[in-house]
Structures are given as structure tokens and as C-alpha cells.
Amino acid sequence: MENRFQLSWDEEELARAFKITPKDVREYLTDGRRVSFIIERRLMWEHPGWKLAPSEGAGYDLLDPDGGMWEVRSITRGGVYFNPSNQVGSGRAFNEDGFQQKLGGIKGFILSDIVGFPVVDVFVVPVQNVLDWHSQRLLGSNAKVSRAKFLRELAPRIQL
Fold first, then answer.
1. Structural domains in the chain?
2. What angle do CA 144, 41, 155 make, to 5 degrees?
3. Which of 19, 34, 39, 43 has the fewest CB atoms in 10 Å of its CB?
């Protein structure tokens, strides 16, 4: 998989297929909770040898041809987070041990900037980048970063 590429869709075609409006398609496919299922599968089908995790609770989303585990995340208007999903949401708090454990078990993150739908920029981020950004305090205290900061400061620093 390349370290940066784009996925694109024809939103008019999707709207016709689903019998909804293009606005509905955009609303649905720019919601990270909803679009992740589609993006994970699109990445798998477009990259021979990649496989989906056996279940939603596997701790990763995709398995590369060498057995490396990758987490797929969406970059939304609110940004992107690198901590475990069980640390995200109302009443949940960041936990450094859980964060380090999560990063110790994966090869990296595949981030899709869904804000640009129907053209979605994809960034493949090895886990060492995230560890470096965290130690340099470039991520927020909860391991989240705004979309603007990711695109402006972190994306240019991605090293494979």
C-alpha cells in the first residue's frame, strides 16, 4: 500500500443506487462512525492480500499480507484520535497505559480524510510516527489532533 493515495466515489451514482439524495450520501459518508465499514472494505478489496479483522472487537481493522495489524480511522471535521476506541466518547478518559498497549499491538494507522468526500485522501501512518508525535507533545493530551493540525504539521512528517 502506498503511503498516500486517494479514494473517490461518484456521489450521484451512489445516490441513485440507494434512492436517496446526493446530500444524504455526503451526510452519511462524512460520518466516521458510518463510513468506516465501507472504507475498511474498499481498502481491502483494492489492496490484494489484505484481510479484514475477524471481528469488530479484534483490536485492529485490517491485516496486511505480512501479518501486520492496522487500525483504520477517519479524519473528521473534529480531527482524528490515536488512542483506543474504548477511551473515546462521553465519560471515557485517556489512559496512557492503554494507549501504549494499543500502539504496541499494531503496525500503524490508515487515516482517511472523509471531510473531502467524494475524494478522500488516505494516509498510511506507521506506529512509530504516532509514538514520536506523542513524545514530542504534538498530539493533544488525549492523543487526538485537529484535522487542520494533522494536515498542516503531521502529514508532512510521516515517515515509512
1. 4-157 (3.40.210)
2. 35
3. 19
